What does this fold into?
Amino acid sequence: MKNSFAVAMLISVLCVTAMQAVAYTGQKLEKGAKIKLAQAQAIALKARPGKITDRELEKEKGGSGLRYSFDIRVNRATYEVGVDAQTGAILENGREGKNPD
It folds into this structure.
């Protein structure tokens, strides 16, 4: 019984740590988004398979004006994929420059 509790606690700590490893900004804007973070991540990873290293929800020109922005690592390159938070449309899918925003 003690072992199962310890294992459950370890799994909980690892899950929380993994979720915190990729920062997320934009929680205050979420109520205005029709597309939720998990859906936007799936859309972004379908457009650019790799590992998400950063994510945010921001007001930005283009599309509906509210977008999720994901930095996705593929091999040694980082790509920025923008997903419209209202429609789910891909707004950007290109290699991150030397001076990422």
In short: Residues 10 and 16 are 10 Å apart (CA to CA).
